[in-house]
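Re: that chain you flagged

S.,

Sorry for the slow reply, it's been a week of failed gels. I finally had a moment to sit down with the sequence you sent. For the record, here it is as I used it:
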Amino acid sequence: MKKDFGDSINNKVYEFRVLARLSQQELADKIGVSKQTIFVMEKGKYIPTLLLAFRIATFFKVDITDIFSYDLGGAENEN
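Prediction finished late last night. Pasting the C-alpha cells below so you have them in one place:
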C-alpha cells in the first residue's frame, strides 16, 4: 500500500493560459497534449510528468517554478 505523505503539486496553468488569451484546445495543440489533459491539470486532478511541466514552462518562457509549486503538506521526514 502506498503511503500518503500529504504533499501535492500545485499549478498556475489556468492563469498563464488566460493571460496568453489561449483556449484549452489552443494550448493543448501548442504543447502536444489533448484538451482533456489541460482541463484536468487546471482542475488539479492531474499532475503532469516532469517533461510536460518543462514543456509548458518553456512555452510560456518562464521558469518551471513560476507555474508549478510543491506543497509539502503534512509530510514529515521519517529518517
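What I noticed first: The longest helix spans residues 50-60.

Talk soon,
D.
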